[in-house]
Design brief:
The chain is α/β, with parallel strands linked by helices. It has helices at about 50-65, 90-95, 150-155, 175-190, 200-205, and strands at about 1-10, 20-25, 50, 75-80, 100-105, 120, 135-145, 160-165, 170, 175, 195. About 25% of the residues lie in helices and about 30% in strands. Helix 3 (about 150-155) links the parallel strand 7 and strand 8 (about 160-165). The structure holds iron/sulfur cluster.
Length: about 210
Amino acid sequence: MLKVAEEFVSIQGEGYLTGVPMYFIRLAGCSVACPIKKYCDTDYSFKYEVTAKELYGRALVWFDEVSCDSYALDWVCITGGEPLDQDISELVALLRAFGKKVMIQTSGMRDISFDVDWLVVSPKSDRWQDLKIQKGHELKLVYRNQTPHLMAEMYHWTKFHSYFLQPYEKKTNYNTQETVDMVLHMCNKLGQSWRLTTQLHKSLGVR
Ligand code: SF4
């Protein structure tokens, strides 16, 4: 059984696939020792429990509702909480066998034993050595004044297609300028291709 917080359709608001319409499955629970847990505004509280097949079936109903001949909702984003706290391998396999592309957003603090189409790691440790997942498509770091040295090590020792830095929201204040400055510093001074990402869905006031 999978513990779920919510399912909805929206656009991806962060990172490389910003703007892409997706079906979101937010799994309940987060066991990660996360330094920003106190300020985490994601509601990953447990709402209901379903099997992987049932969750897949619910997704199919959504696909039928929002897709027509000229438009297809290709992507499913499985997020949390920490989605890899639960065994989602069957759900991912069902969705991919149906032809959907699956994105996982994880802290990287749990192992993953199956393939996905887009793997996003948002580290909750500043040390790359603490990550169980050290390669994938996208690494997205929330900027909490990590030193350039720690960021450079994260970039150097991990293997991701893209590296993003995201402003940290603390009680509705964002450190956007500091984040931009750090992106420029990492690019200009250290020759590392970090990029800025914001949370577009929040600024647009959508889910
Ligand atoms: S790991 Fe993610 S979901 Fe869990 S507390 Fe930290 S920010 Fe929130």
